[in-house]
Amino acid sequence: MNELIIKGNWKEMAGKLKQQFANLTDDDLLFIKGKEEELSGKLQKKLGKTKQEIKNMIEKL
Question: For residue 59, which phi and psi values (nearest 5 degrees)?
């Protein structure tokens, strides 16, 4: 299973990601239910990480 699953308070998670990666903007972290793949793609492109790295990062928040 290689799906991005966002649990809990996304605003809190987004804040933590912005602290770790100063180049992320609010638009980069805009989460719309059902658009997890789009969010994952934006983060992959912006951070230069793989889909699995993004998934692992979000799961650790």
Answer: -65, -30
| Domain extent at residue 37 | 10-60
Residue showing tokens 């658009």:
35
Chain centre distance of CA 26: 11
Cβ neighbours of residue 36 closer than 8 Å, sequence gap 6 or more: 3, 4, 5, 6
Number of domains in the chain: 1
Enter the pTM of the model.
0.78
CA distance 7 to 46: 22
- 16-60 confidence digits (pLDDT tens): 999 999 999 999 998 887 888 899 999 999 999 999 999 998 888
